[in-house]
Each structure stands twice: as C-alpha cells, then as structure tokens.
From TrEMBL:
This is ABC transporter ATP-binding protein. Residues 5-228 form the ABC transporter domain. Keywords: ATP-binding, Nucleotide-binding, Transport. GO terms for molecular function: ATP binding.
Length: 229
C-alpha cells in the first residue's frame, strides 16, 4: 500500500478581533491508499478546517501536507486546482450545488470543464446510480435535502477520485436517506478503491471506517483502529 495523505506538524491560526485563535496545532497523521477514515470531535475542534487543509482548499500556517504524492502546501493555486480536479472529490456540509443549474448540469459542467467527452450522458448515468434518474432536469430548489446530497455525491464520484473528503455527509438527512448515502460512499471505496475521509458526529458511521481520529481543541486527542466486527 502507498500513502495517499501525509500530514505533518500542521498548525493553523485565524486572526480575530480579540487576537490569534489557534485552531489546529501539531497535527500529524497519514492515510494509506484505499483506507477509510473518520474524523470526530466536538463542534469547534477544528475538523472542517483540517479537511479543508488536507484537500488543498486552504493553507496551513506551518507544517506539510502531501496529497496523492504531491506536497500541496507549497503548490501554486493553479496546480492545486488541477490536482483537485483530477484526483480529489468533496462532499460539503451544505452540498454546494449551483442553484441555476439542473441536477444533470451540476454533475456535467465540472466534467465538461475538464474536457470529458459525453459529459451529459455520463452525468445521467451517475445520477441513475444514486437513484435520481427521474430527477435529472430538476433544479436544486425542487429537490429534497437527501436528493441534493445525492446530486453532490454523483458530482463527487464523477471523476472517480483517488480520495474523497466528506464533511458531515449525513448531517441533515433522515436516517434512511443517510444510510443510502453511506452505502454509496462505501461502495465507491470497494469498487474504485477511493480513500474515504469522513467528518461525522455519528459514531455508528465512524465505526464503519477503519480508523478514527478524535480532535479536541485543535489537537489530536486520540487515534484508534476500529475492530473488524
Ligand atoms: P469543527 O468542524 O470541528 O466544528 P471548525 O474547523 O469549523 O471546527 O472550526 C474550528 C474553530 O475555528 C472554531 O472556533 C471556528 O469558529 C474557527 N474558525 C473556522 N473558520 C474560521 C475563519 N474563517 N475565521 C475565523 N475563525 C474560524
């Protein structure tokens, strides 16, 4: 197995009115390709910030991040964007669908921007896979939260990412819909070997992964291997 993510001595601060807020401090861990990994911890412990850094959406104050064999913390914006487009998928807490595009367009447009041929038919196939074959021409406002999350999932799956970062992928969903989303995520891991990094408050979901990183106050509180049941 090879390392797909290698994080060393990460530190991240934000400036606020009352001074410097240290959000992450001395974070070191690594992930093997194909692993499933959960990040848990109380609100405000730095989970979303850590995900953004690992995915190259933000930069640390110090420390290094190697993603898919590339040191991303020193990479310029264009190269980071290229790496993300080719190898990384995201599922955000608030889905981040474009409201003026249909479900199909939300999936197809990023593919078209990457020069993928037959982007629209590929988008329809992906939407069918997540159970939205009858909703391809609907706009996000015409879809339920669970359906919007499935569009976000189809978009994240569209480039068969090597690693997928998901921030509370089931947070806003009812239990049944949440279960379906989780199944789809783990199917992608099994079928395509995509590494999963999932932020969650749901310990049942966390225990479905192979390893759990627990953050507390911006530091690693504990890292544990999940026993296979
Ligand atoms: P979690 O995901 O565990 O809830 P976050 O990473 O979202 O934690 O936030 C960690 C801390 O960083 C919180 O105190 C939050 O208010 C602060 N924070 C997050 N983003 C910013 C920002 N852009 N500017 C200032 N403070 C921020």
């Amino acid at each position: 197995m090879s390392k797909i993510l290698n994080v060393s001595k990460l530190r991240k601060t934000y400036q606020s009115g009352s001074g410097t807020l240290t959000v992450l401090d001395d974070i070191t861990f690594s992930l093997e390709s194909g692993e499933t990994f959960a990040i848990v911890g109380p609100s405000g412990s730095g989970k979303t910030t850590l995900l953004g850094l690992c995915a190259g959406l933000d930069r640390p104050d110090s420390g290094t991040i190697e993603l898919c064999g590339v040191e991303i913390d020193t990479l310029d914006e264009d190269k980071r964007a290229l790496l993300r487009n080719r190898k990384v998928g995201f599922i955000f807490q608030d889905f981040q669908l474009l409201p003026t595009l249909t479900a199909m367009e939300n999936v197809a447009v990023p593919l078209e921007l990457q020069g993928v041929k037959n982007a629209q038919s590929r988008a329809v196939t992906l939407l069918e896979k997540v159970g939205l074959g009858a909703r391809v021409h609907h706009y996000p406002s015409q879809l339920s939260g669970g359906e919007q999350q499935r569009v976000a999932l189809a978009r994240a799956f569209s480039n068969t990412p090597e690693i997928l970062f998901a921030d509370e992928p089931t947070g806003e969903l009812d239990e049944e819909t949440g279960q379906k989303i989780i199944e789809l995520l783990f199917d992608l891991n099994k079928e395509a070997g995509t590494t999963l990094v999932i932020i969650t408050h749901d310990m049942d979901l966390a225990r479905k992964t192979q390893r759990i990183l627990r953050l507390k106050g911006g530091k690693i509180h504990r890292e544990e291997k999940v026993e296979v049941q």
